Every structure is written in C-alpha cells, then in structure tokens.
C-alpha cells in the first residue's frame, strides 16, 4: 500500500511538474496566486496585530482608570478603628466593585505589604467563575509590584484558568488604607470579549483573503488567456507553416497590440510564402536547366568522345607534348561523360522518372562483384578490403544496378578516405530487412561534415587530392536510390576514428523497415557522451530525430554490447574475405558471420 501510494504521489508530482513547465498560463496563475497569498498574509497579519494592540490598549486604559478609582476610595476610608469592622467593610467594597464593574473582572485582591499583619489578605471573585488568586500570578510580576513605589501602576498579560483559557489583564498598585496600613491591590480583568472580537476580525480577513485569491486567480486566468490564446494560435500556425502549409494565417481581431502582432506575423508569413514560392520556382528552373543542358550536351559530347578516341588511338604517331595532350583530353572527356551521366541520373530522380527493376538478388554477390571491380584500385591505394557476410545468401528484391552503384560509391569513398587502413564491409539480414555496412578507419568526419555528407556537390575537404575523381553527386544519387527502394542510407563518422555508411533495404518491395540488422554507429566505434550524430533518412528503430537543414539528422543513443564487438572481431579470423596489396589476382570472395546477420535464414 505504501509503495503504491508513493508511486501515485510520484506520478502526480511528475504530472504537476510537466503541466507547470509546459503551460505559461498555469505558471502565471500559480505565481499570481502565490504572491497574492503572501501579500494577503502580510497585510492580514499586520492588521490583526494592530487591531489586537488597539483592543488591548483600550481595555488596559479602562481597567487602569478603574484601579486608580479603587485606590482613591480605599485611601479615603477613615473613622473605622475596629479591625473586624474594617475587614467587613473592605470585603463588601471589593465584592461590590466586582459586581458593578463595567469591565468583566475575574478578581480583586488586597495583599498586606511587609510587616502589616493587622488585616489579612482580602479578595473578591465573581460568582460562577474560577477564581484567580494572587499566588497564581507570575512571581516576577509580584516581585516587581512589591518593589514598586506608591501610586505606580504595573500591568501584566496572563492566561486565565478555565476551559477556554481566555486571555486576561492584571493591574497592580500600592495603596495605603488608614488604620490598616499598606496593601497591594490586584485587579484581574477578563479579555474574552476582546479576544472574540479579534477572532471575528481574523475570520473576516481570512474569508476576504480567500475570496480575493480566487478573484485574483480568475483575473489572472482571463488576462493570461487573452495573451496566451493568440500565442498558442501563433505557435500552431508557425508549426503548420514549418510543415509546409504556407496558406495558414493568424486570425486578426481588433486593433490592439495582439492584433498588431498577428498582422505582423501574417505579413511575415506572406513574405516567407512569396520567397519560398520563388525559390521553388527557381529550383524547378534550375533542375530543368540542368536536365536540358545535360540532354543537350549528350550529342556533342558523344561526337567529342569519338574524336577523342580516334586521337587517343593515334597518340603514338605524335610527339611527346601532343601525345600527352591526347591522353589528357581522353581522360577529361571520360570524366566529363561520368559527370554528365550523374547529372542525368539526378535529373531523373528530381523529375520522378527514376524506375526500379527489382528481382531477388543475393546482396553478398553484389558486394563480391563490387570488390572485384575496385580490387586494383584498393591494391594501388594499399588498402585491405575485408568482407563479413553470413554463410547463407542474403536475398532481397532490389534493383541490382542501383544497389551495385550505391555499394561501389561507398567502397570507393572508403578507399579514398581510408588512409590505407583496413575497410570492413558487413552484410546482414533479419526477417524484414537486409543491410550492407561499409566501415573505414581513416580520417573520419566531424559532426558538421556528417550533416552535409549527402548534399549535392559537397566535399568534406575540397583541397584534398582525389585519386578517383568524382563529381560530388555520388552520395546524393546513392541516397535517392535508397529512397527509391524505400530503404535507408545513413552515415556516421568521427574525426580520426573513421566513418561508417549503412544501407538498409526491405527484403520485399512494399515491406516496411522497423530496424536494421547492422548497428550504427558501428560496434567497434569508441563512443563518448552516450550519443552520436547519424545523418540519413528518418528511421523507426527507436532513434531520436532532429531536422537540420535539408538532411534529417538522427541522434541515436549508442549502446552496443561487448558481444557485438566480439562478433565483429571474430569475423576477421574465421574465413572473412580479404583484398589488398598482398593479393595479385584481385579480391577473392568468401563469407563469414557478421554482426546482426542470420546465418540460417534463406532468401525469399
């Protein structure tokens, strides 16, 4: 029960904190109410103290005047020489004063002073009330009265005996009675009526304070609603504008400051819509221009290529300078043709004309074929290629040409930036997806570079010498090809620790991907801070996504087990395929289990 109650209170507290942090209106109402309570408490306390002081002072002055009158009467007694008669007279007068006092009295007492023993202590008490004797009064007060001078009055606040323990006031004064000697006169007044008055005023202040808090809270709610509702509307409209609905506008009511804000917001939205529309039109024109130019250049480039080939084939008949020019011309024409091909391909994607030709394909065979084509380049670069693949085929319905182009781009980029270090290529699958991961251990990428790695014509280091050419469109085209398959192409990198690109494809066309069979960041990555930056399309595998520019950035919590790292390391010692400078006949193919793979799974 206690644990359940504790969990309930914790959940309630979390809900209150969540609502308090998410609602500006709630914070303003709560803050206004708290400040109102503090102000009312301060003012009420001050007023209560002032009223209590006033009631006490009024009663003290009244009882003090009565006491002075009693002293005058006692001092005027004369002609009574008999002791018993004097005692009877004093007792009668004391009872009469208690009965006829305009102020409720609890007792009047005469105490002999010093050696005066002619008259015993005399006291009078009201009928039906518990008596207050002189011995019950505070000792310090009685000592002060005994040391006082004739005519000096002293007073003390006391608590009267009884069930209600009402407050009381004691006033004492020295008095000298003829024929009887010196006495101390103690007059005890009951302040119950004053206490009742004070409590009534306090209750009235409390009720008024509660009503005022409710009224102030209601006023704060109304006022903040007048401000918060337009702010919420503006936030909703801004969110819809950010989602692409550029026709949304804030409602304008009246001509106050909120209306002015709404008009300014709408003017900004109009200007933004106009700019975006013009940018979209410009983008369409640019893409159309690139497409038209690419197609128009196709025919003259073919003619130039034929002429370049004829000149290149006859280069041995030229002098050294002309022969070098012929070789340079041929290489640049080939590079121009590759660039033109990339431009045509990206234009087809922009126009929505790219089509898939899918059939069941073993992704391991695609990786092996790519390694065969780049083996000479890897050998010249001094780079070892290492394949980690399951023993059974990793089948998926894909466009073989496009997937081959993606893998080749990734492997060539890894060779280019791998700093002559080993490149690991992983192939894996699960029930719904198949994946290829290319991991290099070279220069790596910073977070800023990861954000732009799929941008068109973008290079991480433009001044870096490139041995394999490239148009700057390879990764952009690869990303479009992955999207065409309804798959993911994601990138991870860290400066000095290398990079990793993961291609995840559905095993059957139209099948949704929930997770990738290969980890990203890679299992062998040294993770710091618990999170890392991954660029690529939004996924549904539990990642937290942040939109940055035109590229969705996925911030994944990097928690890889040591077992995954051991699996990666073990794959290099039990039959992984290798390609590198030690081989003279290109890359050989072979398969070994990779992280996340399913060795016993058959293709569709």
UniProtKB/TrEMBL annotation:
<keyword id="KW-0472">Membrane</keyword>
<dbReference type="Pfam" id="PF02518">
    <property type="entry name" value="HATPase_c"/>
</dbReference>
<feature type="transmembrane region" description="Helical">
    <location>
        <begin position="24"/>
        <end position="43"/>
    </location>
</feature>
<keyword id="KW-0547">Nucleotide-binding</keyword>
<dbReference type="InterPro" id="IPR036890">
    <property type="entry name" value="HATPase_C_sf"/>
</dbReference>
<keyword id="KW-0902">Two-component regulatory system</keyword>
<keyword id="KW-0418">Kinase</keyword>
<dbReference type="GO" id="GO:0005524">
    <property type="term" value="F:ATP binding"/>
</dbReference>
<dbReference type="Pfam" id="PF00512">
    <property type="entry name" value="HisKA"/>
</dbReference>
<feature type="domain" description="HAMP">
    <location>
        <begin position="225"/>
        <end position="277"/>
    </location>
</feature>
<dbReference type="GO" id="GO:0005886">
    <property type="term" value="C:plasma membrane"/>
</dbReference>
<keyword id="KW-1133">Transmembrane helix</keyword>
<dbReference type="InterPro" id="IPR003661">
    <property type="entry name" value="HisK_dim/P_dom"/>
</dbReference>
<dbReference type="InterPro" id="IPR050428">
    <property type="entry name" value="TCS_sensor_his_kinase"/>
</dbReference>
<protein>
    <recommendedName>
        <fullName>Sensor histidine kinase MtrB</fullName>
        <ecNumber>2.7.13.3</ecNumber>
    </recommendedName>
</protein>
<dbReference type="InterPro" id="IPR003660">
    <property type="entry name" value="HAMP_dom"/>
</dbReference>
<keyword id="KW-1003">Cell membrane</keyword>
<dbReference type="InterPro" id="IPR004358">
    <property type="entry name" value="Sig_transdc_His_kin-like_C"/>
</dbReference>
<keyword id="KW-0812">Transmembrane</keyword>
<keyword id="KW-0067">ATP-binding</keyword>
<dbReference type="InterPro" id="IPR047669">
    <property type="entry name" value="MtrAB_MtrB"/>
</dbReference>
<dbReference type="InterPro" id="IPR036097">
    <property type="entry name" value="HisK_dim/P_sf"/>
</dbReference>
<feature type="region of interest" description="Disordered">
    <location>
        <begin position="563"/>
        <end position="604"/>
    </location>
</feature>
<dbReference type="GO" id="GO:0000155">
    <property type="term" value="F:phosphorelay sensor kinase activity"/>
</dbReference>
<feature type="compositionally biased region" description="Low complexity">
    <location>
        <begin position="563"/>
        <end position="582"/>
    </location>
</feature>
<dbReference type="InterPro" id="IPR003594">
    <property type="entry name" value="HATPase_dom"/>
</dbReference>
<keyword id="KW-0808">Transferase</keyword>
<dbReference type="Pfam" id="PF00672">
    <property type="entry name" value="HAMP"/>
</dbReference>
<dbReference type="InterPro" id="IPR005467">
    <property type="entry name" value="His_kinase_dom"/>
</dbReference>
<feature type="transmembrane region" description="Helical">
    <location>
        <begin position="204"/>
        <end position="223"/>
    </location>
</feature>
<keyword id="KW-0597">Phosphoprotein</keyword>
<feature type="domain" description="Histidine kinase">
    <location>
        <begin position="292"/>
        <end position="509"/>
    </location>
</feature>
């Amino acid at each position: 029960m206690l644990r359940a109650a504790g969990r309930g209170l914790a959940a309630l507290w979390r809900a209150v904190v969540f609502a308090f942090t998410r609602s500006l209106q709630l914070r303003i109402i709560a803050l206004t109410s708290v400040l109102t309570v503090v102000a009312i408490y301060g003012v009420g306390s001050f007023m209560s103290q002032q009223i209590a002081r006033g009631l006490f002072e009024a009663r003290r002055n009244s009882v003090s005047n009565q006491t002075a009158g009693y002293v005058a009467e006692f001092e005027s007694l004369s002609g009574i020489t008999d002791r018993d008669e004097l005692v009877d007279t004093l007792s009668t007068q004391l009872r009469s004063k208690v009965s006829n006092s305009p102020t409720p009295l609890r007792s009047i007492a005469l105490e002999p002073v010093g050696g005066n023993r002619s008259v015993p202590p005399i006291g009078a008490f009201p009928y039906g009330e518990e008596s207050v004797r002189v011995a019950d009064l505070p000792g310090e007060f009685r000592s002060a009265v005994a040391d006082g001078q004739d005519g000096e009055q002293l007073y003390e606040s006391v608590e009267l005996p009884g069930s209600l323990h009402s407050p009381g006031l004691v006033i004492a004064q020295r008095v000298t009675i003829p024929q009887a000697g010196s006495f101390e006169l103690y007059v005890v007044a009951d302040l119950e009526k004053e206490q009742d008055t004070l409590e009534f005023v306090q209750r009235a202040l409390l009720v008024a304070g509660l009503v005022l808090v409710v009224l102030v809270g209601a006023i704060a709610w109304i006022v903040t609603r007048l401000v918060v509702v337009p702010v919420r509307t503006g936030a909703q409209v801004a969110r819809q504008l950010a989602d692409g609905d550029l026709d949304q506008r804030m409602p304008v009511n009246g001509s106050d400051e909120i209306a002015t804000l709404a008009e300014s917001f709408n003017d900004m939205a109009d200007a933004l819509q106009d700019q975006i529309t013009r940018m979209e039109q410009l983008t369409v024109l640019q893409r159309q221009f690139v497409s038209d130019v690419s197609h128009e250049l196709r025919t003259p480039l073919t003619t130039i290529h034929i002429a370049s080939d004829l000149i290149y084939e006859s280069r041995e008949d030229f002098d050294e300078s002309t022969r070098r020019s012929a070789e340079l011309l041929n290489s640049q024409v080939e590079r121009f043709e590759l660039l033109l091909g990339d431009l045509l391909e990206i234009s087809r994607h922009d126009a929505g004309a790219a089509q898939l030709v899918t059939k069941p394909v073993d992704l391991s065979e695609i990786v092996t074929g790519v390694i065969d084509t780049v083996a000479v380049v890897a050998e010249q670069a001094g780079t070892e290629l290492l394949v980690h693949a399951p023993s059974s085929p990793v089948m998926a319905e894909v466009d073989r040409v496009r997937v081959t182009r993606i893998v080749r781009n990734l492997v060539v980029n890894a060779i280019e930036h791998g700093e002559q270090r080993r490149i690991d290529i992983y192939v894996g699958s699960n029930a719904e997806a198949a994946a290829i991961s290319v991991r290099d251990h070279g220069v790596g990428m910073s977070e800023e570079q990861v954000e732009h790695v799929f941008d068109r014509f973008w290079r991480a280091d433009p001044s870096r010498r490139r041995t394999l050419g490239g148009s700057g469109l390879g990764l952009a085209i690869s990303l479009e090809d992955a999207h065409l398959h309804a798959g993911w192409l994601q990138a991870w990198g860290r400066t000095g620790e290398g990079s990793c690109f993961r291609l995840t494809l559905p095993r059957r066309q139209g099948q949704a991907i929930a997770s990738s069979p290969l980890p990203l960041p890679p299992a062998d990555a040294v993770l710091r801070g618990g999170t890392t930056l991954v660029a690529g399309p939004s996924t549904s595998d539990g990642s937290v996504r942040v939109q940055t520019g035109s590229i969705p950035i996925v911030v994944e919590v990097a928690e890889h087990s040591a077992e995954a790292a051991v699996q990666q390391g073990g794959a290099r010692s039990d039959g992984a395929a290798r390609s590198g400078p030690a081989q003279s006949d290109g890359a050989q193919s072979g398969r070994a289990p990779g992280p996340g793979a399913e060795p016993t799974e058959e293709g569709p």
